[in-house]
Specification:
Low-confidence stretches: none
Largest sheet: 2 strands, antiparallel
Oligomer: single chain
Radius of gyration: 11 Å
Order of helices and strands: HEEH
Number of domains: 1
Amino acid sequence: MALLKEIFYLFWLKVLRRLEYRGYDSAGVAFKKNGSISVTKNLGRVNQLTKKLNFKN
């Protein structure tokens, strides 16, 4: 299950990177965890969001 979750996040981070080149200056993700919604936002490039989430590029 953990591998599937990582593949899912890496896929969406790739999608966010494509939007980054269209002029967006912030990014964020939301996911369900333990019955609640966890939101992570970041101003700046998607790579900074990736670091905040502790995922590899």
